[in-house]
Amino acid sequence: RSCYAHSPIGALYAVANLYVQGSMPDLAVRNIEEHVVPGVGQEVALEQIKVAVAEGSIGGPGDVSVQFAGFQFLSYGPESATIDIAARNSAGGMISFVTEVKWSDGDWKLVVQDNGQPAVPMRQLPSLVGYLPWSGA
After folding, report:
1. Which string of b and e fits 110-129 if b means at least 16 CB within 10 Å?
2. Is 89 exposed, middle or buried (0-12, 13-18, 19+ CB in 10 A)?
3. What are the tens digits of pLDDT across the range 39-95?
4. Report field, pTM of the whole predicted structure over 0.90
5. What are the backbone angles phi and psi of residue 108, rounded to the nearest 5°?
6. Measured between alpha carbons, how far is 10 from 56 in angstroms, rounded to an integer?
């Protein structure tokens, strides 16, 4: 998926889809190639994801599934956005994914550190206080 609107909602949908596509073995490598800001971090992330796919550690039977439960816009501007997505996991906990995206080559792309990881690590959440609810099927 690509060609997201150059808007706050476009950035939100891009972030959500980046995580979904990144958890699917058949899309994970292409996701990094096409949807991460080019640079050292992208190259490192690409190598990491190739190893994970080869080892079968993405999308395998032991994976914990998540359902998006809420979101917050931490910042938004025409060139970048930082979005916090809250999710419930199949183990019964709630987690937060704080993600920065940049508008690059006509689409929203994930920003990663030089070590290939997001700038803010995933964290446990005690509640959804402060998040706009997000529910689906």
Report:
1. bbbeeebebeeeeeebeebe
2. middle
3. 999 999 999 988 988 887 776 555 557 789 999 999 999 999 999 999 998 788 899
4. no
5. -80, 130
6. 31
